[in-house]
Structure formats: C-alpha cells, structure tokens
Amino acid sequence: MIAVRVSGDHRAAIVGSPGYFKSHARPKTPHDLVNHRCVNFRHGSGGDVYRWEFEKGRKSLSVAVSGPLILDDVELMVRAALDGVGLVFVSDDYVAPHLASGALIRVLEDWCQPFPGFFLYYPSRRQQPAALSALIKTLRL
After folding, report:
1. Could you tell me the CATH number of the domain that includes residue 24?
2. What is the DSSP letter of 115?
3. 60: which strand partners?
4. Pairing of strands 69-71, 39-41
5. What is the pLDDT of residue 122?
C-alpha cells in the first residue's frame, strides 16, 4: 500500500467561553471534567457518545463527560461553547479564530498533543487511473 499525507497534524482543543469560566474553575486535569458541563458529540444518530481522549507524555486516558447537550454537528458545538453552555472538545482548526479573539479560552492544552492528520491509501503506483493521479496531485501537501 502507498500512503500519501493529505493534511497536516491535528490537535484537539478543550474550550469554553470567558462567561463560563466566571462561574466555573478551569480544569487542571482531565479528571476535573466530571465537575463541568460538557457538550458531548455523537457520530450519527445511532453512534455512541464520544469519550474525550487525552495524552500527556506516556500517559493516555479517556474520560466520559456529561452535560446538557449531545450534538452531532461541530459548528453547533462551537456555538454552544461561545454561548457559555459548557466546554467542548473539538479540533483546534474549528476554534482558532475564536481563541485569537478571546471569545473562547483553551484549557488542558498540555493534555492535547498533536496527532497525525489524514492520509490517502491506495494499492500501488502501477497502472494508476488518471483520476487517481489527479486526486493525489491535488491533495498532496
């Protein structure tokens, strides 16, 4: 199999609004999240609720959080965070402008290590269809 990297590294962000943090202490460890209102994410209508995953050095853990909302749309999750509903776990790409403006505050940053982005996998380079070659050329970083 041939692997072609088609995106840079990704990084999770745990964020909340300044208004949320006026009435809630900032979590210091992932275990503190059980004392917070968190907006959960569900993949599709029948999927399980996502357990928030963390890494720091050689430690890795996942935390089942609870809160007032379970959503399947990242934009709605960001809106909920902006509105002070609770903390959200999203890719930092989704919240970068809000972090820069101060509309959202990042917490547990040291527990959110970068991880490899997306790759395109295909069987071999021999007799490659023209459409696949064009796609690879377009997506290659």
Report:
1. 3.40.190.290
2. B
3. 55
4. parallel
5. 85
